Amino acid sequence: MKIYNHLLNTIKQKGAAYLVLLDPDKLPEEKLQGFINHCERSGVDGFLVGGSLMINGDFESFISRIKLFTQLPIIIFPGSITQVSSNADAILFLSVVSGRNPEHLIGKHVLAAPTIKKSGIEPISTAYILVDSGSTTTAVYMSGSLPIPRNKPEIAAATALASEYLGMKLIYLEAGSGAEQSVPDEMVKAVSEQCTVPVIVGGGIRDSATARKKVECGASIIVTGNFFEDENNWDMIKEFANAVHTKNSILV
Ligand code: 1GP
């Protein structure tokens, strides 16, 4: 539980943790080192790595390259069962608990578990809750499941609580990468009030004030991906990190 405990400590010390998503299909190889250096200097707490399709290159070498450039935790955020690498530190062992598709609740897990064990990386059991964000996101489409309606925070809260009772260590509220709307504040609040395990919020977060607001509503980990695929935005990573780190923030 090294990485999980590291996340818990970071949350305790900083108020919340800030993770940046690296998608092999969206981040060109030549920009990888520069982006990672930028994130490290700006106070990012770790990287999630994964993608829905993996059209470009191979996952293993992408992870190896990231490892060359950073000491920060590298946590796989798998888009499929092929996204496992011993070069990462941990993997979010995601179950799409918002849906009722058995393949994404347990089926894929049976196939992936032996490979994860062999790789030696730390699996972190995570309840993956897809939330409607105004249009069909890749995550909703690929999982073949319905997201939780935006105006039903009580369903999200009950789903999260059931997941915690089942032993899951993290709750991931996901609006979907590039979502039009982020997870509603009321839903973040309702879920955070029900659960004692950390709540991750991601999808459609494009400004630091929104990131801060999610933390104020109870989120313990904020994830951004899309917004920093544009190099012109890299100077704002620090602003995001400071907004998330409520305990030691010097807001810029
Ligand atoms: C996706 O939550 C992450 O799984 C990040 O979403 O790319 O919209 O920031 P964005």
Automatic annotation (TrEMBL):
One record GO biological process: phospholipid biosynthetic process
EC number: 2.5.1.41
Alphabetical keyword list: Lipid biosynthesis, Lipid metabolism, Magnesium, Metal-binding, Phospholipid biosynthesis, Phospholipid metabolism, Transferase
Cross-referenced SUPFAM superfamilies: FMN-linked oxidoreductases (SSF51395)
Reactions catalysed according to its record: sn-glycerol 1-phosphate + (2E,6E,10E)-geranylgeranyl diphosphate = sn-3-O-(geranylgeranyl)glycerol 1-phosphate + diphosphate
Enzyme class, broadest EC rank: transferase
Any one Gene Ontology cellular component term annotated for this protein: cytoplasm
Descriptive protein name: Phosphoglycerol geranylgeranyltransferase
